[in-house]
Every structure is written in structure tokens, then in C-alpha cells.
User: Fold these one by one.
Assistant:
Number 1:
Amino acid sequence: MRIVKAINNNVALAVNEQGHELVIMGKGVGFQKKPDDIIDDAVIEKIFVLETDELSEKLMDLLGEIPAIHLEIADEIVNYAKETFDVKISDNVYLTLTDHISFAITRHEKGMSIRNVMLWEVKKFYKDEFAIGLKALEIIHERLGVQLGEDEAGFIALHIVNARQDGQAMKTTVDMTQVVQDVLNIVTYHFNVVLDESSLNYTRFVTHLQYFAQRLLRNEIVDSGDDFLFDQVQVKYPESFACTAKIDAYLQKAHHATLTKDERVYLTLHIHRVTERNRTSE
């Protein structure tokens, strides 16, 4: 194995007998090494054989800016995911996850925290990946003594989702979150209220919206054709029913989808419940 480029004393880019570039780590592996120098196998502690030479070189560039232990932590997390959940993960995760972990640790040291607006969705729809995220927090704490919050477990989980699904699951989660947030905004502005996020009715409403958004994005919306409840809620809860018309207009414009009568009934009932306290207190 020959040196291509030494990034520091303990990390180097190398090329094997087949001509593939590898990222290697080990005490003194890059010390005073020049291109084409032969590497002593005895000093190699870890070899990262990535999918492409371009990915290996990008990882090397990253390791020139951050501590190598952050890559070791990412590797431990990926190995835990593979062994515990028997999943296939793209090598690109070594780049993205290492970069994220390093940035998260830097933010933590500066007292900066970022709220994960998709934490609810990650917990609900990606339970295995979130479990990996929680384990990642344990690994980071064990290796560095840094205790990151649950929001970071959610971010790490999304990196695993992305690596497992080539970005498709990540896109679905993002799109689903956008639908939920947009509908909540429509309700808020229609009634000119601040919804009580700690209430059970709010939790029920958001849960319904999440499942609805999931069905919508998968094109799994069906309608029973029952007009009786539709007519009833239209008369009994006219303001909440009017709000569903705005939601329907948004869905047609943004997602080329139309609310079914069933869905307008369910949404009307949820909207009435979640806004009732505000209306009765006026």
C-alpha cells in the first residue's frame, strides 16, 4: 500500500494494489510521509474503503479540518446500525455523518443548540433510525464526554435514513413535515389564534395530519362517499368547515390533491376541537 497524501501524523490517503484509494488511520501512519512512500501495515489501525475515489478524497479534505476521532465515532455508529438492525448503508454517510457530528460538537461547545423541527416525525416514522440516533449520543458521550440532546439524535437518525434510502425517505419526511406545518399555519391564521401545543387535542390533530400527509404523498387517499356526516359537520361547525376549504385550496395548489369528503369531516372535527378553547374564551 502506497501513500497518496498524508493529512496529518495519524491519517492518510493511500492506494492499494488494485489502484483503489483508501483512507487509513493509525498512530504515525502519515508521519513524514511523501507521495508513493510505502506504508507499514503494522501501524494501520483502521481502513476506510469507500465507494469512489472522489468520496475518499472529500473525506480526506474534511479530516484536514476536524479531529479524526469524529470519523471514528461516525464509524462506530454506522457499525452499530449495521450489526443491530442489519441494514445496508451508503458509504456517503461517513462524509455526511462525520461532518454533522463535528459541527454538533462545535455548536455544543459554544453553547448553541438547534431545535429539530422534525423530531416528532422521526420518532413516529423512523423508530429504528431514532434508536440508532440515541445510541450515537451514548457513543459520543463515552468517547468525548459531550452530552448532546435528543434533537441531535433526530438529526443523526435522518442521516441514517438518507444513507439507507438514497435520499428518498429523507425527502418524504421533509415533504410530510411541510404539509403538516402548512396546515397548522392555515388553521392558526384562519382563526387568528395561537394553538396550545401542550394540549391533548393538539397532539391528536398533529398525529392525524401526519398520517394524512403520509397517505397523501403515497397517493393512498380513499373516500367512503358518505354524505351524511359531511352535511352534519358543515352545518354544526361552519367556521371549522370553512377552514378545511382553505386547506383544500392549498393542497390543490401545492400538491395537486383534493380533500375527500371523509377527510374534510375528520379535519373539521379536529379543527373544532383544537380551536374550541380559544373560541369559548372570547
Note: The radius of gyration is 25 Å.
Number 2:
Amino acid sequence: MDVLIAGGGIAGLEALLGLREVAGERVRLTLVAPDPDFTYRPMAVAEPFAVGQAKRVPLTEIAAGAEIITDAVVGVDDAAGQVRLEGGGTRAFDALLIAAGAHAIEGVEGATTWWPGGDSEAFGGLLRDVEEGYSKRLAIVIPPGAVWPLPAYELAIMTAGEAREQGHDDVRITVVTPERTPLSIFGPDVSTAVAEELERAGVQLITGAVATRAEGGGLTLQPSGDRLDVQRVVAIPRLIGPAIEGLAADDEGFLLTGEDGRVQGTERVWAAGDGIDSPVKFGGLATHQARVAIAGIAKLAGVEDDLDPGEAVLEGRLLLGSRQTRRLHGAGDHDGAPLWWPQGKVSGSFLPRWLAEHDFAPPASAVPAPDEGIEVRRPVRALAEEAQQLFDIRRQYRIADPDIAALGRRMRALQSRPR
């Protein structure tokens, strides 16, 4: 059976490796991805601080034995079993998994937009301004909507530490977030610990607020209308969906799926990862969604065993640097290492194992000691209320994008440029 996987990120590769293992010769695999490499980002947040970097793995290594097409799927005809490629032409399929991911766009107008997949030099320039004494008042903003907030807190704590190391005790850093509490989806223990870490680092925290650029500089905070006087603003991006023609999607391009991972209104199309309409964007959730799709596709291919993807769980460990030593592979004991374990922020059954076996990621035996940090294990269903609150704020304050599909094409082009 011809199985086409659109997307060379976490969800797509988890599905490819999983189908190869559970379906074997029952499937012929084709991977369509706009970038010839998979970017593994365990230390990307540390790149601006020169204590780590993202790793790039050629898809030909991970997807050995599969056909690889460097392109992007922009249209799907489920009835005809055919996709349309951005570079021109079509491709047939018996089963299709869309794992195209989400596209990062500006979270706050005029701000420096940075995320672990972005250009580390963008944040590096701000750090140089801090070092040279040009920037004293910084805001790090989490926009409303579909976002992954953890990097904002890592950047704030690491930037505060960097400023102190450079002898600048007068640098004021403020985190602005629409969350009720910091990292609220991880539960009260994590929220309390992050708030304490921010306070210890001298970082101000403003919760329940949406930041927009104010006339004359600085930020306006909604709904209070208060003004925040800052010189520089860094925002993690807002995310939009892939908006693929022929597939059901919401008004921001996120694909609509059922609990079985199948795209609404289709028979042979599944979707997984950041590009679907789940309000929680997390690598470990993307691998779970991929395993849900694997179960459906394998059954279609004639695999008789019922494959149980398990419950969707957000899990990991928050490492508290100033209270305990951070023991992260590749970072030594540097206190600027990211806060979260696993350091790649990815748990799964197939891709993390492949990365560990090929020395791209630490093995399971390298996990922190049980008494180090705060263990997080929350069923995704339990996150629904908090995630929905962020989604509702997005709908209240978002700035409408007139053409999500066109914007998505532009972002794909930018993200797939040769490096």
C-alpha cells in the first residue's frame, strides 16, 4: 500500500519509523518535506548564549528505504487519492498523513520574533545591546493563541543571568503572558516553581495580559490598558496551520481531525502534529498523534494486531537551575542550560529511540535523577480547560490574517531557504 507522509518534522518521522516497524513490507513509504534535513532542537534555546546548538539530521539517514521528495503538499483530493505539490505536479496515495506542522508568524507587531526554530542571531543582537549598555528594559512576550510558551521563560531566565555575568545589574526584564500563571498547563507545582525561578532571577512577571505595541514605543497591556515602558520587545511567535486545499480547517488554517486522527470528511487522510486544531503544541503530543495515525493506517494496510497508541500525556521534568545542578547532555553544568527535560522536549516510541541510537540525543538512561527538578506527567485531557482559556483569548484579541494560505506559503519558503 502506498503511504505518503507530508512533513519531515517530529510527527512525520515518528509515523514513518513506526509504520516501517509495525507494517513492514505491507507499506511503501514516501516522505514529502520542504527541507532535506530534520532539525533536532534540544539546545536551540541556548544557541544565542553559546552553550549549545540545534542539530540537523539528513532525512536520508532517518528515512532510509523510503522515497524522499523535497517539496510541500498544498492540495489534497481524498476521493482521487492524489496530492498536489507546491513545486508542480501530483502524487498518488492509498493513505496519507499530513504532518506539515504549523507556521510561525509575528506574535507582536514590530517585536523581535524568536523561537527554537528561528535565527539565533536575531536574539544574539539583543544580547550584544545588553552587553554594550544600550538596552536596559526588555519585555519577553507570549502572544495569545496557539503557542508553545516554555522558550519565553527559558530566554528570560537565561538573559537575566547573562546580564548579571556582564556586570549589568540594572537590566530589567519583564515576561508578559496571557496565562493565568506561568506554564499553567503543566499544573500548579510547575507554575509555582517557575514563578520562584523568575523572582530569583529578578525577572518581573505579568500574567493574564495581552501585549500590543504602543504608540511612541513600549507596550500596551490588555484588558487593563496599562502601558509598559520598555526599549526592546522579544516575542515568541504565534502559530498558524498549514491550510491545505481540500482539507477541513479552522479560520487559522489548523486541520480539523477526529479522535482517530482522521481529517474530517476524508476516508484516507490522517493528520498529526502542530498543524492540527489541538490548542496544545508539544513535541510529545505530536508523537502521540502520529501513533494514533499509525494505528489507523496499519489497519488499512492489513495489520491484524490492534495497535494501542496509549493516552496522550504531556510529560517531562522541569530542572531548577539555581536550586539544583542542571545535568543536561552537551551542556555540562552551565547554569544557562534550558530548563526542560527531555532536552529535545520530545518523548515518543520511535523517533527519540532512533535519535538516541544514532547519538543525536541522550539515551533514556541519561535522564535526571528522580530527586532533580519537578516531574510533570499530565494527561492532555486534563489540560483542556487551561488550553481553551488561551484559545479563547486568541479569538478575542487576534489580528485577522486576510490570506492564511498565502502567508503559510511565504513562511514555508522562508523556512526552507538553504542555510
Note: Residues 109-237 form a domain with the FAD/NAD(P)-binding domain fold (CATH 3.50.50.60).
